[in-house]
Amino acid sequence: MRHHLDDIHVDEDENEINLTPMLDVVFIMLIFFIVTASFIKESGIDVNRPDAPVTESKPEDANILVMISANDEIYIDRRLIDPRAVRANIERLHAENPKGSVVIQANKKSTNKVLVWVMDSSRNAGVYNISIADQR
Amino acid sequence: MRRKHGSMGAEEEENEINLTPMLDVVFIMLIFFIVTATFIKEAGIQVERPDTVTADTQDDASILIAISQTDEIWIDRQKRDPRAVRSIIERLHAENPKGSIVIQADEESTNEVLVIVLEAAKAAGVANVAIASDNT
Asked: Is the pLDDT of residue A37 over 80?
């Protein structure tokens, strides 16, 4: 009989002990989800800014046309421009025509690096309204 | 020995009462974070992103599209056909309507493929698209 009573006590002890590892698991899962909820940060250049209205650029606004050729040469107003001078050129054109947006006509074979470089220079120059057109 | 067990039992009863509301709070927080966590599907490949200075952090990026150096499109750890990109974006967008698209295009990828992906995103009805870059 005493053996049976001892067993009952052992069962009660097991119920009390089980809460501790369960709390450990629950806390670890909670901390995991809290941390991963804010962890993934991608940085990138917005192609469509959500706050800018999605409108077709009017032809009256003389847009700043940048052309990228197949071998990654940058042409503004049909003149070959050095990559480091792109920002200054866009600043100048933007000062002459504040409403104009930048339209990048990129050749199919041009690389992403040059496209992003032009977009970055344009944003640096203060023009965030950029459209990308494909030369077909 | 049994008395000690008995007195320990009385103290442990007090501990058990304190644990219950704490468990309630912990479980509710856990369920909250599980529900609000959205899982981002990794694209599947690593790319060399172009360098920029004006990039913004993309906080609600949920669809990742990678374009490799050789113009392969990778979504959700699989190489995809360019013609299928639009329906894949529609499906992923339906799973998480607030999520934005981030295109991780390699520096040396051509703009032809980038424009295909951009047009597929526009056709699928997702306005918030960004191009990933290495920001300094």
From this structure: no
pTM value? Answer: 0.70
Q: What is the DSSP letter of B108?
A: T
Interface test with B, best of A45, A66, A91 (most B CBs within 10 A): A45
- The tally of domains found in chain A comes to 2
Q: In whole angstroms, how far apart are CA B40 and each of A37, A49, A118, B33, B122?
A: 11, 21, 29, 15, 20
pLDDT score of B9: 46
CB contact under 8 A, B130 and A119: no
Q: Do B26 and A27 touch (CB under 8 A)?
A: yes
Q: Is the Cβ pair A124, B53 closer than 8 Å?
A: yes
Q: Which one of 3.40.640.10, 3.30.420.270, 1.10.10.10, 3.40.718.10 gives the CATH number of domain B51-135?
A: 3.30.420.270
